[in-house]
Design a protein that fits this description.
alpha+beta, 2 helices, 8 strands, globular
Amino acid sequence: MKKNNRFRQGIYRVLYPEKYKGNANNATYRSGWELRMMKFFDLNPNVVEWSSEETIIPYQNPLTGRVSRYFVDFYAKMKTKDGTVKKFLVEVKPYSQTIPPVQKTRKTKTLIRQQAEYIKNQAKWQAATQWCAKHNSQFVILTEKQIGI
């Protein structure tokens, strides 16, 4: 039986507000996976600072042609094993949303919606990768495979 990730939402109570960059009273998670990541960032001593949906990157929405705003799930500044400090932008997504949707037999409304979401996500992630290159950071997409679900 699969755990339903979609409808677990709320405000995370940040335990170490000195590590949180932004409004620690407004750390909103939109899935159980995001909640898991918030606990990791908050409790991990190698995380120097972190935030949730505080980094906003403009991107060209290929579906509308307009500039939209991408609220990246997380920012984290972390100490690595060799003692250096690295900055990351982290997006948490189901693996199924990181690969192109496949048409099975006929084109359904669900398939069209999935294709549109995939195209939009690709534009967001490309903008985030470019932003990171300019800001000495790394963009990472984590799925259930990486976060151990």
